[in-house]
Structures are given as C-alpha cells and as structure tokens.
Write a structure and sequence with these properties.
Distance between the termini of chain B: 45 Å
Order of helices and strands of chain B: HHEEHHHHHHHHH
Order of helices and strands of chain A: EEEHEEHEHHHHEHEHEEHH
Strand content of chain A: 25-35%
Radius of gyration of chain B: 26 Å
Strand content of chain B: under 5%
Number of helices of chain B: 11
Structural class of chain A: alpha/beta
Structural class of chain B: mainly alpha
CATH superfamily of chain A: P-loop containing nucleotide triphosphate hydrolases
Number of domains of chain A: 1
Largest sheet of chain A: 6 strands, mixed
Oligomer: heterodimer
CATH topology of one domain in chain B: MetI-like fold
Radius of gyration of chain A: 18 Å
Number of helices of chain A: 10
CATH topology of chain A: Rossmann fold
CATH superfamily of one domain in chain B: MetI-like
C-alpha cells in the first residue's frame, strides 16, 4: 500500500543538466518523500541515471557536466558554494547496476566507507560489519565462512549485490540511490533485494531506477516517468503515487509506455 | 510471437566440395603455428639458461660467494660484486619508486590530458628508448663529475634510477588506468575524497601491476652494465658505503670476459646473476601474493 507522502527529503527546483552542449535533463522539479521508495522509470537514454546522480553529485565526476537550477536535501542546497560533495555523499549512498564488489575480503569491502570517515576502532568496525550484513540478510549466510578471509568475489552475484548494499549502508546514509540494481540479477536474488528495499524504506529514503515495470509497481510508493521530448531533452512527464500512475496515468505518454511494456 | 521457422534452404550443398579450407582446419593450423612458435621461444630461453648454468655452476662454491676477487678476478670469489649489485639496485629502486609511482598516479588520476601531461608522457616514452650507455654518460658527467659524487654506489644508483623511471611510470600508469572506473565511482559514492578513493579502491587493484613494473625495473638494474661501469666504477673492493666505488656482477663478468681474465669465473658470475634474478622474481611474487591477493 502506498504511504501517504510525508515530509520531503529531496527536492529539485527547475534543475537542468548539461553534458557539454548536450542538454540531458530539462527543468525537473520534484519532491522526493522521506522514508519511501520512489521509482524512476522511462525508456533508455531519457536521463534516469543522470537524474539519480544529481542527488549525490556523481555527475561532478564527468568533466563536461554542468548543473543549473537547485536541489535540496532536507532544505539545504546540494549544489553551490556551501555544500561539499564528499560530505553529501556520506548522506546519500548509491548502489550501482553491476554488483561491483572490490577484490578484497567481505569484511574489507564493508569497512572501506567507515574508514573513509575516520572509524578506526576495531570493535566499532566489527559492529558495523555485523549490523550491515544483518540488514541485508547476509550475516546468517556468511558468519561461519570467515568474512575476513573470503573474497567478496567468491559470492554469487545476488549475494554480491547485497554486499554492495551493505557497503553503502555502512556509512549510515539517509538516502540510498539504486541505479538498476537488480537488472543483472536472477529473479530469486531480485526478489530478495526487493524485500530488502521494503525493509529499508522504514528508515531510509530510497530512489530506484528500473526498467522493470512490475518491480516499480511492487516496491515503490511514488513513481516518476521520464521521457525525451521533441528537442531531445530528458523531461519529467509525470510524477505521482505509483498506484495512481499505473492504474490511472494522467499523461497519454505515460499510459503508452506502461501499457506497451505490459502488453 | 511464435518463433518463425527458418526459411528452407535453396541449395543442398551436400556432395559439393567446398573450395575454401574448413574453419576447423584453419583452427588446427593456427593452433599448431602459435604452439610451435611459443615452443621455440621457450627452447631458446631454456637453452641459454641451461648453457650458462652448465658452464657456471661447477665454478660456484662457498668461497666463490663469500670471498672478494683476487688477481683481477682470476681467483677468489665475487662477494664484492654481489654486494655492489644489490646496493646499486637498491638505491636505484628506492629512489625511482616514489617518483615513478607518484608521477603515474598524477598522470592517471589527478589530471586530464593537457600540455603538462603530454610533455611528461612524451618525455617518459622518449627516455625509455634511449640506450643505457647514454644514461651512463649523463650520469658520469652530472653525478660523477659535476656533483662530484665520484665513481660510487650513489652515482650508479641515481643513474639507474633515471634509467628505470620511464619503465616504472609507464607500467604503473597502465596498471592504474586498467582499474575499472566503477571502483572509483564506488569509492566516491561512499563519501571518499579523491585520495581516499585512490587509496581504498584504486590502489589495491593496481598494486599487482605496479609491482610487476618495479620487478621489471629491478631486473633491468641488476643486469645493467654500460650505465653502471661509467658511474659506479669497477672497484674490486667491498663497497664500504654509498660513496665507495663498486663493481656489479654484470660489470664484473663483462670485464672478465672481454679482457680474457677468466672465462670460468665469468660464467660463474653470470650463473649467480641469473639465479639472483630468478630469486628476486620468486620472492617478489610471493610477497605480492601474500599481501595483495588476499581478496582475489
């Protein structure tokens, strides 16, 4: 059941993103509710991932990227002089499409974030590892195999993606961005991660990008539909509670996209 | 939609002799070719090593390893040459490593292609192609004469450091660049600064490649003759400090062989040199596997 939208965690006001001369996102204004799952859907190349990366300023890593407009997290500006991308990313975690664990032990994979933020005490790190692995339901599966010696690469891809989620949780973020995080996984692992999203949504604000309409319908409270318009700019076509969007889309383009995918 | 049936074949090729060679046959020919080429290369390498060891091993005994050369190397051992080799190489590697690896990280991580990077890269590539005798001449003029370091372990080490710098820069930069970009993204997404991301996410995956470059450089330093004879000298005494002159094993057997002093001892020295290089490789690889490959 969709929760009634509560407080807004993230907001954007007429935000535009350019890669050099290419105008990737045009005039996006949204309010992402706190402690809910928001799904970003739309055809390939419409700027879904770019939109997601606005919130943790990952677009900054691309030399030609330029952002105009405003984005806020808890009312504080994400872009501008007073904000710092490094401390922002501690609050806004990210899980990527591929389960990209580092070629290190499971333990090392998780403590890398806390170590960035100055946690050195071994007991504290141990506690973080246990908490995060438990949160992604890996603790019971892995506690006996030696998380200090077993490489993250030895896990199955589903386990690896959950390890990546645990790694993101280890820095104690407030927002988790998931960029097609299930698209490389088998149905069973996908299901586990979806269950995980539902659990995590009690405490974290989650935004997912997905190509899977059923997944958006299953896990999300709000949905945002993006599409490239006539001038090749990615735009937000419709933003509504997921149930409303899937069963009573207001925009013809949304309806076409959703039904096209189902049919 | 149901899968459509493939369209019916117009011709039946059975009974025709195909004009082209079958791909399977080509496969066999190619496989045979690469196999025999590889075998020949290995055979050449092995025969060189076996020949040197066959000629050199009979000379080697405890005295050969522990005594200093007497009568220009006709008698006695090569202990001072072993020490000279190790010292000169150690100086070279310890000086070249921080500069080389630092430059590589700068080129690969901290800068996008600009004039400065192009200049650095072009210099590194040009330096890699310069014959070692030129480095020797430069080292002789600059370190030995101008800086007045004399023929010494230090002069030799500094000269070799400059010589192996391009190798370290290029192999390290390649190793750093081959780390998938997703690792960097993850590092940043966890709230890491640039340096934290490099240290935590990029460097652990690049260490093996960087270490391979360093090992390669160690091998080159150990085997170098021309650049060393001009800068470290060819003293037979045991080097007492970094400012004493020293003779490396490569220089020693070059002199033994070319001046007709003792072919037996030249082979003995060469055998020790080969064994030393094998030993360095094995130790280095063991260390890398022990400390780096934990997660692989």
């Amino acid at each position: 059941m969709p929760k009634p939208p509560g407080k807004s965690k993230l907001t954007t006001r007429a935000i535009n993103l350019y890669y050099g001369n290419y105008h990737a996102l045009g005039d996006i204004t949204v309010e992402i509710p706190e402690c809910a799952v928001t799904a970003v859907i739309g055809p390939s190349g419409c700027g879904k991932s770019s939109f997601l990366r606005l919130f943790n300023r990952m677009n900054d890593l691309i030399p030609t990227a330029r952002v105009e407009g405003e984005a806020f997290i808890d009312g504080a500006p994400v872009y501008g002089k007073d904000s710092d991308a490094v401390s922002l990313r501690k609050r806004v975690g990210m899980v990527f499409q591929k389960p990209n664990v580092f070629p290190m032990s499971i333990y090392e994979n998780i403590v890398i974030g806390p170590r960035h933020h100055g946690v050195k005490n071994r007991g504290e790190l141990d506690a973080v590892v246990e908490r995060c692995l438990a949160q992604v339901a890996l603790w019971d599966e892995l506690k006996d195999v030696g998380i200090r010696n077993k490489s993250g690469l030895e896990l199955s891809s589903g386990q690896r993606q959950r390890l990546c989620i645990a790694r993101a949780l280890a820095v104690d973020p407030e927002v988790i961005l998931m960029d097609e995080s299930c698209s490389a996984l088998d149905p069973e692992s996908t299901m586990k991660i979806e269950e995980l999203m539902a659990d995590l949504a009690c405490r974290y604000t989650i935004i997912i990008v997905t190509h899977n309409m059923e997944q958006a319908l299953r896990v999300s409270d709000m949905s945002a539909f993006f599409m490239i318009d006539g001038d090749k700019v990615g735009r937000l076509v419709e933003y509504a509670p997921t149930i409303d969007m899937f069963y009573a889309p207001k925009d013809k383009r949304t309806e076409d996209y959703i039904t096209g995918r189902f049919g | 939609m149901k899968p459509t049936k493939p369209p019916p074949r117009r011709f039946n090729f059975r009974g025709f002799k195909p004009r082209e060679i079958k791909p399977q046959t080509v496969e066999k020919i190619v496989k045979g070719f690469v196999w025999s080429v590889a075998l020949m290369v290995i055979a050449v390498l092995i025969s060189i090593v076996v020949f040197i060891l066959y000629k050199g091993l009979p000379v080697i005994n405890w005295g050969f390893l522990t005594e200093i050369p007497r009568k220009m190397g006709r008698e006695g051992g090569i202990s001072s040459a072993i020490a000279g080799t190790l010292l000169v190489t150690a100086v070279a590697v310890f000086i070249a490593m921080p500069f080389g690896i630092g430059t590589a990280f700068y080129l690969a991580e901290y800068t996008r292609g600009n004039t400065v990077t192009r200049v650095i890269r072009f210099s590194a590539e040009s330096l890699a192609g310069i014959p070692s005798i030129v480095y020797g001449l430069f080292g002789f003029i600059f370190f030995v004469m101008y800086l007045n370091l004399g023929w010494s372990v230090l002069s030799g080490g500094l000269t070799l450091a400059i010589m192996i710098l391009p190798t370290i820069i290029r192999t390290s930069e390649e190793a750093i660049r081959s780390v998938p970009n997703t690792y960097r993204e993850v590092g940043f997404s966890l709230g890491g600064t640039k340096w934290q991301t490099i240290r935590g996410a990029v460097a652990p995956s690049a260490v093996r490649g960087i270490a391979n470059g360093v090992i390669l450089s160690v091998g080159r330093s150990v085997a170098e003759t021309a650049a060393v004879v001009l800068t470290a000298g060819s003293a037979l005494r045991m080097p007492a400090s970094l400012s004493s002159p020293a003779r490396t094993m490569a220089v020693h057997f070059y002199i033994l062989a070319t001046e007709g002093i003792s072919m037996e001892n030249a082979y003995g020295t060469a055998a020790i040199l080969i064994i030393l290089i094998f030993f360095i490789n094995i130790v280095a690889n063991t260390l890398i596997n022990r400390f780096v490959a934990k997660g692989r």
